[in-house]
Design brief:
Rossmann fold; 6-stranded mixed sheet
Length: 158
């Protein structure tokens, strides 16, 4: 099973919003997520589900990704700030071993879950995505297949 963990793109300054829930992506953040999503489409990423935090910036990130991949977004509270290994384990139940799933959420929980699954000590950048190969019955023993950041995408265009 392939699990993709994507941190939302660059969001607007938190001091401009009374409620953190409402912070949208910046124009630059949306542009970078769009380019990242196009890359993922070219790589053949084909998720059975794209799960996203209900926060605006994660929703916008997930919608851009879903459009690039020809998929839809499923909003799940489990992918919000308290995202955890237990949530991942519950959400992968019922999927085939060859399934691909995407989780779009926030740090620090996104990085922490990737570390718990793979042992990789990542501090996921905004708009980055990590791919982990796992067996659903031993999800905490996965391996990091790759980690893609904006600087990787930008460098490939140079």
């Amino acid at each position: 099973m392939k699990l993709y963990f994507m941190r939302h793109g660059k969001a607007a300054d938190a001091t401009l919003y009374e409620d953190d829930f409402e912070r949208p992506l910046t124009d630059k953040g949306a542009k970078r997520v769009r380019r990242m999503s196009q890359w993922l489409a070219r790589m053949g990423v084909n998720p059975a589900a794209i799960y996203a935090s209900p926060r605006v910036r994660a929703q916008q990130t997930a919608v851009i990704l879903a459009e690039a991949l020809g998929k839809s977004v499923i909003t799940r509270e489990e992918v919000n700030f308290d995202f955890s290994l237990a949530h991942v384990q519950a959400m992968v139940e019922g999927f085939n071993l060859d399934a691909e799933l995407v989780f779009v959420g926030h740090n620090p929980s996104m990085s922490e879950v990737v570390q718990q699954i793979t042992g990789a000590n990542l501090n996921m950048e905004v708009g980055s995505i990590a791919c982990a190969q796992v067996m659903p019955h031993a999800i905490h023993q996965g391996e990091l297949a790759w980690y893609l950041t904006w600087s990787c995408i930008k460098a490939s265009d140079d």
